[in-house]
Specification:
single chain, mainly alpha, 150 residues, 5 helices
Length: 150
């Protein structure tokens, strides 16, 4: 049964080549360790600022809603303004929370050694872009493509 051995060998070779093709190759960060440390410091600082901002927004919403428990009648326009201010504050808090998630994702990428690579195409993100928006996930081309699809 020499023919069956050839068939088995051919099948195992195909499985091996298929498994090599399907595994994505993980690229390393295009940045030097010094650059990564600078971006990491920037991200940590921005994270602290955002946490403080969320805390202030939360206090602001709590303070404005605690006045509603008063037994004094409130003018309808005042109530509308308070509602609108709370809505804006909550939207700002949500956007801030999204930025915090992006920053945490970037800090995780730094630990994994892949910070500075686009999540879509895995090409390096321009250093100028990272300098301005260190929590970016996409290169400029993929960012434009994503925005045009919305």
């Amino acid at each position: 049964m020499p023919g069956s051995r050839k068939k088995k060998n051919a099948v195992s070779k195909n499985k091996t080549s298929e498994s090599l093709e399907t595994k994505p190759v993980k690229k390393a960060s295009p940045l030097t360790p010094e650059e990564v440390n600078l971006y990491k410091s920037s991200l940590v600082q921005k994270k602290k600022e955002l946490i403080s901002s969320i805390s202030n927004l939360s206090e602001s919403v709590i303070d404005s809603t605690s006045g509603e428990l008063s037994t004094l009648p409130q003018h309808l326009a005042d109530a509308a303004i308070n509602t609108y201010e709370n809505y804006v504050s909550l939207n700002l808090a949500e956007e801030t929370a999204n930025l915090l998630r992006d920053i945490d994702s970037c800090l995780q990428k730094i630990q994994e050694g892949v910070y500075g690579l686009c999540e879509n195409c895995t090409k390096p993100i321009l250093k100028k872009r990272l300098k301005v928006v260190p929590y970016t996930r996409l290169c400029i081309d993929c960012q434009h493509a994503e925005e045009s699809n919305k």
